[in-house]
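$ ./design --mode recover --in tokens.txt
reading tokens...
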């Protein structure tokens, strides 16, 4: 699946045309994660959103005594989309499952000018 096809599956980007999706694709950074690699740590700030291209990730919260799994996310799903706007604290931790994962990272520093360009064109 191409990056553009993957972006079309992301709710945030639905309705964008091919030219706009190409702008978003240009700011995507490819990441390959090994099994167990930590992507997001709970209670830290972040400014990145991740789109899962292959494999899966576990979302979990750290409790007083141990970690509790919340959900497993897979291909086409998104992690951390709120960070593109508010760059606030992460509410959960995320790590690659035993099979590892391939993700695309979108940083808010690159996303905001891109989004403004699309918005001012009157198409988003």
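writing sequence...
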């Amino acid at each position: 699946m191409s990056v553009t096809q993957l972006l079309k599956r992301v709710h945030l980007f639905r309705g964008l045309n091919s030219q706009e999706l190409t702008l978003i694709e240009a700011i995507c950074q490819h990441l390959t994660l090994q099994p167990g690699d930590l992507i997001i740590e709970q209670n830290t700030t972040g400014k990145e959103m991740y789109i899962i291209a292959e494999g899966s990730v576990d979302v979990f919260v750290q409790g007083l005594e141990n970690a509790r799994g919340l959900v497993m996310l897979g291909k086409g799903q998104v992690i951390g989309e709120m960070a593109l706007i508010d760059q606030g604290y992460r509410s959960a931790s995320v790590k690659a499952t035993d099979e590892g994962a391939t993700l695309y990272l979108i940083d808010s520093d690159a996303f905001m000018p891109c989004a403004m360009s699309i918005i001012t064109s009157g198409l988003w």
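exit 0
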